[in-house]
Design brief:
8 helices; Rossmann fold; 4 strands; 4-stranded parallel beta sheet; alpha/beta
Amino acid sequence: MKYGYARVSTKEQNEDRQIAALVEYGVPMRYIYIDKQSGKDFERDNYKKMLGKLKKGKIVVVKSIDRLGRNYEEITEQWRYITKKIGADIIVLDMPLLNTTIHKDLLGTFISDIVLQLLSFVAQNERENIRQRQAEGIAAAKTKGVRFGRPAVYAPNEYAEIIEKYRMKTIDRQTAVSMIGCSTATFYRMIKEIEGEEEL
């Protein structure tokens, strides 16, 4: 019996191409398990459900090794768990060498292990490169003044001296806003809050 596993990183991504490949290979639709989350680890509900169904002699089919996961050590650990502990087989459609149903001799196992480790490393390396590119993109955006996360909360009392200088006309509005690092609307809100406190 064949079980299929498909994974995409987000709910917006489409897994149809993977499912089509699995069905074409002969995996019944009812035996295809799909997760829509990151491949950084194996804490995935449907992956765990599939593992629970696996028995000796069954086969897990994935389209490519990175659909299984993107963490080098965990991919190899899961591979060994499925093939050695459970006694099931794995077929990676995009990499015919990663097919434990054939070449079960020592040389075949050796070649399969080498290819697995190489591809697992490539999968993790790509994930780290994606993270690095994201970090570089965020850093570049920040240098251009793009702000991330929730807007900062400005307490008027912390900037009372700057606001007072503006009210005394020793600095202009643009200078005061620049010194505080807030928007013009926030600056006027802080002035209103201070004036409200003064009226009490």
